[in-house]
Write a structure and sequence with these properties.
0% strand, single chain, 3 helices, mainly alpha
Length: 105
């Protein structure tokens, strides 16, 4: 059985390949790695985004009936970067390895 080894990185400083780079270079490397994401990875990220955004807007629409819906919508919107950033960083980290080895050659 194959083990799925996924590390979650909450900041770009935690990614070993980017640890030594300044902030601007880390962001550029992440943008380049994001362009290399495979279609299934992009699809999964977009579905996760929808799973957070759609309920938030549905709760905002219910705010006229129940004002607590605004609180839940705000919590969902705050959860958006907390959930998606580590997943996006871990997907991009896989593509940074190939970028670094190609740059060294």
């Amino acid at each position: 059985m194959q083990r799925l080894d996924v590390k979650l990185y909450f900041t770009t400083r935690q990614i070993p390949q980017l640890k030594h780079l300044p902030f601007g270079d880390r962001m550029q490397a992440m943008r380049d790695a994001e362009k290399r994401l495979t279609p299934p990875e992009k699809l999964l990220l977009n579905l996760l985004k929808l799973l957070i955004i759609v309920p938030a807007f549905a709760l905002i629409l219910r705010a006229s009936d129940d004002w607590w819906a605004l609180v839940w919508a705000a919590l969902l919107i705050l959860a958006y970067p907390l959930v998606l950033t580590p997943i996006q960083h871990s997907f991009c980290a896989k593509h940074l390895k190939t970028e670094q080895t190609q740059g060294d050659v």
